[in-house]
């Protein structure tokens, strides 16, 4: 593990553990201050998402002459996903520039903000369905099942490498499992903020040095 990776893990879990301790010592402070919007935890999450997007765009730039279209499209899709997460965190600029929410979002958004994860249609909460259940299933598959399939089946490995899908190493998987366990110990209703923060940083750390790192580096090419 590189020194930079160790330092990023140290930062991530220092914040996570601090949040867990605060939640047990003073739950009101944890829920009202530590995890409030436009505070440290949220902006630190924005930084991780921004770094992830920039990393993918940079890889597109340096690998465009060496990799085929599917690989570049995979990087492009991942950079878009980081951008989408970033946009949702800052309500697509509303929290920075302070514009008024339009009528449609104010009607269907539980916080009257310009974002999708707080939309509610009747009893259907988008955040609970898509950003909770479905995203949780995808994360579980990605960190727990896909690495096994990657190591076991050559066709899966070929597909993953062709489409620029970074694969977690064992310590990335262990880090995410530890994050999940720590988050579950938090009382109250704001476990998700810690999971979101830690998950974004662990994913960013993972894409910097995935199991299939050589496919994302120019050094692997003979020129």
Head-to-tail CA distance between termini: 28 Å
Task: State the shape.
Answer: globular
Could you spell the SSE succession in H and E letters?
A: HHHHHHEEHHHH
Number of domains: 1
Across the major sheet, the strand order is: 1-2
Low-confidence stretches: none
From the structure above, extract its key features.
223 residues; mainly alpha; globular; 2 strands
Explained architecture:
By secondary structure, the protein is mainly α. The chain has one domain. The chain is 70% helix and 2% strand. It contains ten helices and two strands. A hairpin with a 2-residue loop joins strand 1 and strand 2. The two termini are 28 Å apart.
Describe, in short, the structure shown.
The chain is mainly alpha-helical. It is 70% helix and 2% strand.
Topology of helices and strands:
Blueprint lengths: L2 H23 L1 H8 L5 H24 L5 H21 L4 H4 L5 H6 L11 E2 L2 E2 H27 L1 H9 L7 H15 L6 H18 L15
Antiparallel strand pairs: 1-2
Helix pairs in contact: 1-2, 1-9, 1-10, 3-4, 3-10, 7-8, 9-10
């Amino acid at each position: 593990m590189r020194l930079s990776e160790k330092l990023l893990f140290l930062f991530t879990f220092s914040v996570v553990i601090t949040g867990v301790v605060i939640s047990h010592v003073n739950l009101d402070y944890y829920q009202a201050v530590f995890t409030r919007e436009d505070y440290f935890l949220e902006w630190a999450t924005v930084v991780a998402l921004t770094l992830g997007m920039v990393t993918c765009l940079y890889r597109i730039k340096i690998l465009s002459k060496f990799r085929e279209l599917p690989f570049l499209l995979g990087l492009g899709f991942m950079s878009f996903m980081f951008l989408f997460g970033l946009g949702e965190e800052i309500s697509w600029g509303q929290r920075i520039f302070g514009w008024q929410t339009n009528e449609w979002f104010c009607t269907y958004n539980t916080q009257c903000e310009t974002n999708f994860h707080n939309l509610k249609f009747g009893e259907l909460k988008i955040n609970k369905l898509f950003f909770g259940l479905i995203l949780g299933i995808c994360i579980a598959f990605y960190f727990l099942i896909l690495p096994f399939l990657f190591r076991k089946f050559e066709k899966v490995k070929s597909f993953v490498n062709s489409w620029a899908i970074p694969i977690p190493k064992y310590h990335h998987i262990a880090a995410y499992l530890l994050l999940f366990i720590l988050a579950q110990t938090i009382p109250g209703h704001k476990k998700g903020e810690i999971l979101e923060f830690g998950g974004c940083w662990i994913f960013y750390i993972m894409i910097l040095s995935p199991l299939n790192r050589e496919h994302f580096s120019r050094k692997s090419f003979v020129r």
